[in-house]
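Researcher: We are triaging several targets before committing to wet-lab work. For this one, the compound of interest is zinc ion. I'm pasting the protein sequence and the ligand SMILES. What I need is the predicted three-dimensional arrangement of the protein with the ligand bound, expressed as structure tokens, so it can go straight into our comparison scripts without reformatting.
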Amino acid sequence: MPELPEVEVVKKSLSKTISDLTIKNIEIRNKYLRYKINEKLLKKMVKSKVLSISRRSKYIFIKLNNNNTIMIHLGMTGKIIIVDANKNKYKTSFHYKLNDNNSRHDHLILKFDKKITLIYNDVRKFGFIKILKTAKVQSSSHIIHLGPEPLSKNFCFKYFREKIKRRKIYLKDLLMNQKFIAGLGNIYVNEVIFLSKINPKTKVNNICHKKIHVLINNIKKVLKKAIIEGGSSIQNFNNTKGKKGNFQQFFNVYGREGKSCTRPNCIGVIKRIRMSNRSTFFCNICQK
Ligand SMILES: [Zn+2]
């Protein structure tokens, strides 16, 4: 499931490939995504030009020159694929393999000038595509309640300390809460808590000031690393060869149940428990 770094890399890929291009044609093969695509409204975007691409949390915004913005959420299995004039296909992020792509799940196809095509593919169809008035993007129901961006200056010690005062929820649940911090999901939350040597079931009102600093630093570090390494692992649109390799190797705890802890000199084993109905991985020795 794509989280903030994966979506950030999509944003960067799209910025490089479709900025300043004009939409020539829109083909909707299946409008029944998480929300039904407003076919009539979407088709009105033909002939408009892409001004910029941005991201907030896990949402991508394609701002057009007609005061509208195309909002995309990838859900669980959404992928954006770019096809160039020579029919070469490029993936836009690192949460999927291009070879896994089955065109049966290509739901939306945007054709731009310069013979560039954007395909939205989504096996499970939990993603969605909406058209918003650009002026109303920030006040839309998806965005207005979101907490700060983890890589922004607003996500800082003072903010964290104020938000956890007198709260007795578990650390993992706090970090998964999009009103507290936007865009973090299960994979990176597990990783951050491991790196911070804290048990995921620690009540947040028991976290000391030093550990708050450690958590904030690790959140920023893990996300930045994933954006850089994940971004470099995909083949660039300009055909420079990207580094190959399995990005999953990067994770210390996620998906490693029963394996030895990766921390030097720790004899612990990675355990898996359920928290808020999601798999939670942690080392039974070094995460206190
Ligand atoms: Zn350990």
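Researcher: Any quick observations?
Model: The chain has two domains: 4-136, 157-250.
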